[in-house]
Amino acid sequence: MIRNRVVIVDDEVEIRDILSRIVKHENLLADTYADGREALEALQESHDDVVLVITDIRMPRLNGLEFMRQASQDFPDTPFIVTSGHGTKKEIIQALKQGALDYFEKPFGVKEISASIRKVRLLADEGQRTSQVYRNLVEKRLLFKIANEIAMVQPLVGGLTDEVKLSCCIPRSQLPGMRMGLHELIVNAIEHGNLELDSALKHRHDYLDVLKLRALDQRFCERRVTIEVVIAAAAFTCSIQDQGLGFDWRSLPDPTDPENLFKPHGRGIIMAGNFFDEFFYNESGNQVTVRKFFKDIKV
To answer: 192 Cβ partners below 8 Å, 6+ apart?
Structure first.
């Protein structure tokens, strides 16, 4: 789908009109809203053709910063430009930290806004061309070996899902589930595989301290988790192997059966299994492989 719509959010009619004229001059479509709540509802109904959001910081009902935060959670790739006539330096800095690409104080210059819109559009066009190139991807392999540091898991999983988003034909609505599933399985490999921690210990208030001490223990500190990933346009495969003793995976309920989500034993693994089409362990139970297919999915 061609991205040619700019969402304009401002409680001042005059500003909305000025921005609409600028957007139309750039041969883009303008949708205007008086506050962040209206704009957020509109984005949730339709966002695939949105190339840019221009929002004021100070607005009734839902201000620009909160609107940006909520919209970015659902649509992380949507670029923002912020404007304000009364915003404080703290608010402006916060907007930039939240990912705003540009900031303009009112009254702003037409040429400056136009130049910023053209820059954002250029980036969007480059992103679309990159996506088109990656549709020709045959296969990409990634291999990681990580230490027993839980803090490393989230950025690793974030990088993997970014690769999936770029390389695979997958609806973005499925990415959070994949991210959560991979996170759960890698953390399990560290905690219960390499560090041989019992699940019952998680109920302790000092569990994080126990985890850190265990990771320094000479019996476990040299162990690593190996994550091997194969990415293709139609499928994603990930094998996660620890250096622990393994476990009897046959005692677990079927992780791909949604009914087993309500069973207390192995709930984390069961949740992870429901995000993938295939889910299986090796014989000893110290390696799990998950696979998701995208061939028949229409994006």
So the answer is: 198, 199, 244, 247
